[in-house]
User: Fold 1-deoxy-D-xylulose 5-phosphate reductoisomerase from Ferrovibrio xuzhouensis.
Amino acid sequence: MAVTGLPAEPRRITILGSTGSIGRSTVDLLQRDRGSFAVAALTAQSNVALLAEQARTLGADCAVIGDETLLPELRQRLAGSGIETAGGSAAIIEAASRPADWVMAAIVGAAGLEPTLAAVRQGTVVALANKESLVCAGALVMREAALHGATILPVDSEHNAIFQVFDFDAPDSIDRVILTASGGPFRTLSLGEMREVSPAQAMAHPVWSMGAKISVDSATLMNKGLELIEASFLFPVPEERIEILIHPQSVIHSMVSYVDGSVLAQLGTPDMRTPIAVTLAWPGRMATPANRLDLAAIARLTFEVPDFARFPALNLARQALQTGGAAPTILNAANEVAVDAFLKGQIGFLDITRIVEQTLARVQHGSLTDLGSVREADDAARRYAMHLIDPAGDPRVIRVPTRGQGRH
Ligand code: NAD
Ligand code: MG
Assistant:
């Protein structure tokens, strides 16, 4: 595969969350060009069979499984390979700190924050897919990146698109950023219809094939809300100049509008290997097997204004961003709990944003000064959201710092 702009020595690569949807796409690209990359570490939470297989195929130095009870199985599967093994969340953070030229941060949820921070703190190139780490601690992650000289390259397709067309040397020449959204599987459903949808329906995204959590987020449009917050930390543009536009074909991955009226966009087929390759070859380019875009075959690109009444997650995320401090952390944590409960069949689809809204309204929004305050806000929001889902559950959930004495 032709790779331009890369040094002759194999680059050391680490993948955090190698067994997930983004992780597997990253492994796929590395496999096609084994000579250019040496793998320092691969990490996964529970898919021990795939982790072991990836580690053997790529000749990784080390494989780490988050669920420590699976470490004996990982050891057994990698016996005789010479690949180092470890287990537990501290071992994932240690793996993220190992010297690497490029780290893919592709763990899902706030669980990815500390490993992502560890990668950032080694001052390397961090390809960031784990949007929740920016949502729950954006100021902290960006501050640490500046302090340690890390380069954060966005993998999320919208942010990757913006990154490719954003003039960082002339931010004043930018009028607005337009985040495109497919609208998800329920774009045309009424609220009444949405009340009845199942997890399987929510997971069936019309365009992208992704992990369970982001698929549900795409159905509520919370994903676009999280991406709005993500964009505000990645690009020097005030929140009120970041717009959301529904574009069901997902061909235009996002746009930047300039003061002279020019609008620059990045287009492509929906294949995450393209944005991953942009970060892997940056500042060069590398070939990928992603399907080529055939605009004549697609023929029509359409656009719609989002419906904020049917998709309240968009306004909740914008409000959290405007409030600042711990509000985005609380929004993110409540959403993770609610999505998990929806996937387990404990709550309905419309309950997801209701739980986020109520948690955001009731849990204290302190300021975020360090990782400890992020953890506190995240934990308080999780406990409150769990209490909303199951009021008869663990009584400790009631001891959550809340604002006022309103109803729970
Ligand atoms: P996924 O669920 O398919 O994979 C998640 C990975 O994280 C797996 O390797 C899993 O083992 C690991 N993991 C899960 N919980 C963990 C924990 N507690 N500790 C350590 N590791 C854990 O998710 P995905 O769809 O690949 O998404 C990963 C991230 O990338 C998410 O933040 C998502 O929002 C973002 N993203 C994904 C896509 C996509 O197309 N899938 C697109 C844009 C952004
Ligand atoms: Mg996206």
